[in-house]
């Protein structure tokens, strides 16, 4: 159309020579012409039109212009401007109608073209704005692209770093694993090494043991022996049996019997356990069924389904039960059936419970929920009560403990004092008993003492009497002796009588008396002394004294004084004292006597 | 020294002189003297029928079986020198003996009635440490030394029933105990855990750890606490026991009682020397109650505490924490009652009803070094250094209500 435009526009304008030039040169730059024409077209073509029109067709070249126009129009497809030629030579008459039509057509075309142009211009504007927009978008997008590229690069960088790290860590892990493996290998190798060494040492040790064993056995130590007084009967009283193949077989039999018994026992236990568990499972199943079957009232489909399933299950299970009771309970299939049915029931129950939970969670104001809340409250109350009770119990326990402790310590005091009292009472009683005993003994002792003293007194009195008697008797004898001179017989009589009756104590007195007697009795003295010695074998000293005294008698009287002194030390203890007593008590008597005698 | 099983004879072994003397209770003039001579003597014990004596010679060269019935001798070669190499079944029919030949471990099962070799099989252990019969006499547990955690279970006829190994490389088994019903085998190891194997599958049922911090509120922790001494020295109260006046020193010695400590609680731990052998860590003492309901354990890291586990519920039931390290504990043979001694002058009793600490009366200090229950469960013998004390427990009253005593020098 651009070309067309260029052609028509100069055709339309047909003014200046430039334009006529343009008509000849149809292929010129349309844009400049177009722009020109646009400018031209925008201005109401009042002035230029005329000039243009006059430039093309003048009065001279009408025919030429008409023919030219006709040519142009026909080439464009318009009908010819000329009328139909009647003959060949006749002039072509201008068809005004055709011209007018052509003009109209051309005007219409012009309008169309203008419209088109406007459209095109608006489109152009639009496109221009679109272009701007797109350019701006493009710029933005370019920026974004740049930014994202940079980001990508950054992320790639990070990714790379992380991958590096990852690789490093993997490497480390591998290293560690390798190390662990190595260590394990080391351990294993060391273990084998140690085992090997141990075995070697053990072999050595075994060799030593063998050697030692040989030595021990070879030595045939008589020392290795058992020394029993007599044989002891066996624990079960039976006799020992010989070791034969039969006994070996018997032992094996017994061993197997024991094992079999044990296995049977265990199997029984396991069977019992199995039966119990099966019973429990069946009970559970029945209970579950019974729990689920009252759900017929709920209008839920699923429940119906479940009940349907339950009912069917019940029927099945009924059959199963009968079957199970018939068969042996250790059948694999029966077991499977039982477990499967229980699983089914359990699933149904679970779903039911879940439904209930959902119900509860959804509806808050239903009575069901209130019941729940209430029950929870009750539960809480109960727990509180229980806690209180627990606290109270704890306090009670504490107080009781305290009391117990107190009692334990207080009890000590009471019991100890009681015990002390008890002990004291016991002791008191004992002491009383002892006291009474003691008193009795004391009494006895007193009595005895009294009796003894009495006896002593009596004895003393008797002694006195006896002494007096003796003295008198002696006097008499002395008198008799002095009158009659019969030393032997009388002396014998004397001394025998005296020796028989008198004590040892009296004798030295007597001997002194004797000694003090005048030598007239000297004849009888050796006899006396001999008699004395006979009668007094226990006192050799006396004898010597007597002899000495006798000698002294023979020699002088001064010895007399010596002898008592000699006598005193010779006598021991009591005798001495008594002697002295007797001597002292009778210093007067004797000399008196002797004086008297003399 | 050992009583024979039918209580008719007493065995006295003098290891240094290699002599064993046996005395009869029925006939005081009967005597028996066994002289091992140059073979030496390392261990001596009765056979379960009370008529044979098993002597282990020096260097574990052999085990000689002397018969009192027939005056005969049998020799068993190559016994193993290990922690628990000889085990008799409870009914006394069979004896298992660990042997080692050519650097391999074997187990021989003998019939005790005629000392015939019933079974002889090798075990897949590096270094067998012990054998123990199950109380039902049908299963033999064999375990390896602490360098390797391995338990092998053999049936009476020598078949291998199962092998169990919890872990490798670390120190392994420290102690083993069968439950009296033969249902469980408890294995205590150096990692401070007890693993229970059940008798049906011989697989681990559960494992009990012994952490130093107890946080479960359901466990009861009893802590021994010294009672405050009586106020004032002038207050010399006569003690409530019938023993008579106690000297001043004992009255000043503190009494102790148990108090319930609130959970969470942390127990005293002991750090074992890392570079020495046989470290003091791991579960070293295990004992089941006679009804198999409870298991009492002691973790050597935490030497002051005794842990009681409920086997019905398979969880920790009670922890008893003492003031001194626990020396030994033993269950009453008739009921679930545990007696504990720590080397102090008190004996501690626990039962599910409660626990009590009882002081041993006597002049001066009586360090309770070991204890032993009577088979009827009525009395308890407490052994000190050179004294022993018999404790009678009244059956009608609660635990430890009555306490009688009888002293004598041993």
Automatic annotation (TrEMBL), chain A:
GO cellular component: adherens junction; centriolar satellite; ciliary basal body
Coiled coil spans: 131-218, 376-448
Keyword terms: Cell adhesion, Cell junction, Coiled coil, Cytoplasm, Cytoskeleton
InterPro entries: Adhesion_Centrosome_assoc (IPR052300), Afadin/alpha-actinin-bd (IPR021622)
Keyword Cytoplasm applies: yes
A Gene Ontology BP annotation from the UniProt entry: intraciliary transport involved in cilium assembly
Keyword Nucleus: no
Compartments (UniProt record): Cell junction, Adherens junction; Cytoplasm, Cytoskeleton, Microtubule organizing center, Centrosome, Centriolar satellite
Top-rank taxon: Eukaryota
Biased composition (Polar residues): 518-547
Region (Disordered): 503-547
Family of the protein in this entry: Belongs to the ADIP family.
Protein's name in the database: Afadin- and alpha-actinin-binding protein isoform X2
Organism: Octodon degus (Degu)
Gene (name only): Ssx2ip
Automatic annotation (TrEMBL), chain B:
Underlying gene: Wrap73
This protein's GO CC annotations: microtubule organizing center; MWP complex
Name listed for the protein in its UniProt record: WD repeat-containing protein WRAP73 isoform X2
Upper lineage: Eukaryota, Metazoa, Chordata, Craniata, Vertebrata
Organism encoding this protein: Octodon degus (Degu)
Alphabetized PANTHER family for the sequence: WD REPEAT PROTEIN 8-RELATED, WD REPEAT-CONTAINING PROTEIN WRAP73
Gene3D superfamilies with a match to the protein in the record: YVTN repeat-like/Quinoprotein amine dehydrogenase
SMART domains in UniProt: WD40
